[in-house]
Amino acid sequence: MLPIGIKYGAGIHQWDITKEQYTSFTRQAYVTTIIYSPVVCLIKLAILFQLASLFAPVKSRLYWIICALAALTVLFYLASMIFRIFQCTPREKIWNPSTAGTCINSLAGILSSAIVNSISDFILLILPLNMIWRLQMPVSKKWQVSAVFATGLFGCICSIMRLIASVELINNGDETFMLTTVGLWWYASSIPLVPNFPTLSPDNKPNPILLQ
After folding, report:
1. CA 191/CA 199 separation, integer angstroms
2. Is 202 exposed, middle or buried (0-12, 13-18, 19+ CB in 10 A)?
3. Of the ranges 70-74, 100-104, 106-110, which is most confident?
4. 102 forms bridges with which residues in the sheet?
5. Which of these, 68, 50, 32, 52, lies nearest to 193 by C-alpha position?
6. What's residue 78's pLDDT?
7. Using one digit for the tens of pLDDT, what is the confidence trace for 127-151?
8. 89 — phi, psi (to 5°)?
9. Average pLDDT of the chain?
10. CB neighbours of 59 closer than 8 A, spacing ≥ 6?
11. Taking the model in full, what pTM does it have?
């Protein structure tokens, strides 16, 4: 959707585009933010379920922690999507501010989403690393497997940069420029989140007793 957004002012300062471009950009941004919530939710649920299959084959304490994180993930992104859909009454006021009506502070929603994403990304990074170092396998192999999971650090860094961009968006209100920056960091942070975890060999399967 980004190439289409460029046509309507994405990456350009708000005061350098026409009213028609701003309207089209805002409408596109509105649709994108609604799609964003279920997409990211499903990605993070997939990661959590894969972590459960790798490190919590039985209903241990870790299993219930992962289930709790999954439930919180669903609740947050569901609330975020509902917030986006009904942020303005009437909805047209989102892309046409001159329309009579009321709106919730949408920029605060962007900031809260960035904060929660940053925290959850770090949890998804730390959780498997903690489990790996509790497995019964050679230290050298622990480092190798940890290195694969540690690629998620790139996503954490991108999430922090997205959070910084969200704060700047609130401070200066330059939506067409800063929302594009926020979106680019979101795309970048989503790349390493796609589940492609290594499969442990049969002799190095997690020990259920060790993970309790």
Report:
1. 20
2. exposed
3. 70-74
4. 89
5. 50
6. 92
7. 888 888 877 778 888 888 788 777 7
8. -130, 115
9. 77
10. none
11. 0.73
Percent of the chain beyond pLDDT 90? 6
Sign of CA dihedral 184, 185, 189, 190: negative
4-18 burial by CB neighbour count: b if 16+ within 10 A, else e? ebeebbbebebeebe
pLDDT tops 70 at residue 191? no
Question: Per mean pLDDT, which of 66-75, 110-119, 154-163 is the most reliable?
Answer: 66-75
Cα gap 39→13, rounded to integer Å: 28
CA distance 182 to 114: 9
CA distances from 103 to 25, 76, 107, 126, 161 (A): 18, 20, 11, 38, 27
HEC per residue, the chain: CHHHHHHCCCCCCHHHCCHHHHHHHHHHHHHHHHHHHHHHHHHHHHHHHHHHHHHCCCCCHHHHHHHHHHHHHHHHHHHHHHHHHCCEECHHHHCCCCCCCEECCHHHHHHHHHHHHHHHHHHHHHHHHHHHCCCCCCHHHHHHHHHHHCCHHHHHHHHHHHHHHHHHHHHHCCHHHHHHHHHHHHHHHHHHHCCCCCCCCHHHCCCCCCCC
Q: What is the mean pLDDT of residues 55-62?
A: 78
CA neighbor of 39 nearest in space, from 73, 65, 5: 73
Which of 67, 72, 40 has the alpha carbon at shortest distance from 52? 67
